[in-house]
Design goal:
The protein is an alpha/beta fold. It is built from 13 helices and 16 strands. It is 33% helix and 23% strand. The two termini are 35 Å apart.
Length: 408
């Protein structure tokens, strides 16, 4: 079995900055009486601090922003922000407390097109010591899973682990217009099934599907896409706008983490199960298009790896992949791409903050550009993050089922 975690590598320290708004507040507080200080703090929370994070422009740098994460706690020993692929250890994510106030803050310099998820965690001394004993990436992962959503940010995202995290998007981040269907859009329906292998599979039938043969999407980690309703919402919104041909969406349950890793790693059996079991079984009760180009497998991380593996190895059955942040450190796919018996279609994404993973995805991108395969690559300002994947999944459907190019 292949290794299940990417190799560690030195991560750059996140670029910190100083918020002019907080600097001005600090100056005011320094000369204030106790009563005036309390008034100034409340005024801050009711104005600039009402929405977190606080985003400020940087003079002369239109492609960057100062992004300040805020938290209010008068008793915490420390407060940490676990910012997806930006804060890599406890020191990276530690917020500073403004003396004599309950204001905790940390400011980062981020690209104006950045989008990412985060959790905020107030911690006591013993908890901080426990986290400090862990390998940094696992400590930050635990904080993301157990931390709180930002009470001053209404934007959230589901995670692959089943939780919710806050989401920040800067002004130039790509729009995500297909996350919510318009109020007048007709919604489809989801039914739960059990495949011949005993795997739970949720099947979404869009309202516009009718009885004619339709495209089919196999969305790996289907428990995540079903629970969040991101897939159903995107399909309904895109179909209602006439941007895509309405597809069926089959969402296989990944099961417990050990099973997911075993199935989706490069030597796992999910590709064979999709081709030999799931697709024939779905065709027994759904009018699925017979064109393998109309059958799409989508996945993220290990799922993105499996999506690529499936189309390269089985183009006669399924020849379209929507692969996001594929774990290509396990296998670079270059030989599989060269051996594929016929050209396939791929929509591939990776985040600039994904370290070794984005480097491998760039190599595959450059190789596919010189091949007969039909290929779109999108590199976004973000990390290994459902907050980004959910919008790019819809963008991929527009390219694969609507014919609209995404550009580079």
């Amino acid at each position: 079995m292949s290794t299940i975690t990417p190799p560690s590598h030195p991560a750059p320290r996140p670029p910190r900055g100083r918020s002019p708004i907080l600097e001005a507040l600090g100056s005011q507080l320094g000369n204030a009486s106790t009563a005036e200080r309390a008034m100034l703090v409340e005024r801050f929370w009711d104005s600039s601090g009402k929405r977190s994070p606080l985003v400020e422009e940087i003079p002369g740098r239109p492609d960057e922003r100062l992004v300040t994460f805020l938290f209010r706690d008068a008793t915490a020993h420390a407060v940490i922000v676990a910012l997806n692929r930006i804060t890599h250890d406890l020191d990276d994510g530690r917020l500073e407390r403004m003396p004599g106030t309950d204001i905790w803050h940390a400011t980062f310099r981020l690209g104006s097109g950045w989008r990412g998820s985060y959790a905020v965690a107030p911690v006591e001394a013993d908890r901080l010591a426990e986290l400090a004993a862990l390998e940094p990436r696992w400590a930050m992962r635990r904080l993301r899973e157990s931390g709180e959503v930002d009470p001053r940010n209404p934007d959230t995202s589901h995670t692959h682990g089943g939780g919710r995290v806050s989401v920040a998007a800067l002004p130039d981040a790509p729009p995500q217009p297909w996350l919510t269907p318009c109020a007048s859009a007709k919604r489809g329906r989801t039914s739960e099934h059990v495949s011949p292998t005993g795997r739970r599979v949720w099947v979404y039938r869009p309202h516009a599907s009718g009885n004619a043969p339709c495209p089919l999407i196999i969305a790996l980690d289907g428990n995540v896409w079903h629970r969040s309703e991101y897939a159903a919402a995107a399909v309904d919104a895109l179909s209602d706008a006439g941007a895509i041909r309405a597809p069926y969406v089959a969402m296989p349950d990944a099961g417990p983490t050990p099973r997911r890793i075993a199935d989706l790693s490069i030597d796992g059996g999910m590709s064979t199960e999709i081709v030999d079991v799931i697709i024939p079984w779905l065709r027994s009760f759904l009018p699925v298009s017979t064109d393998p180009r109309d059958v799409i497998v989508s996945g993220e991380s290990l799922g993105g790896l499996t999506a690529l593996k499936t189309v390269f190895d089985h183009p006669e059955a399924i020849s379209t992949a929507l692969s996001q942040s594929a774990s290509l450190w396990q296998h670079d796919m270059l030989d599989r791409a060269a051996r594929a018996r016929s050209p396939v279609r791929i929509f591939q994404t990776a985040g600039r903050h994904e370290g070794v993973l984005v480097e491998h995805n760039r190599v595959l991108d450059s190789t596919l550009l010189r091949s007969a395969h039909e290929h779109t690559y999108v590199e976004y300002d973000g990390g290994h993050d459902m907050a980004c994947w959910r919008g790019l999944w819809a963008d991929g459907l527009r390219v694969l089922l609507g014919g609209e190019g995404a550009g580079r």
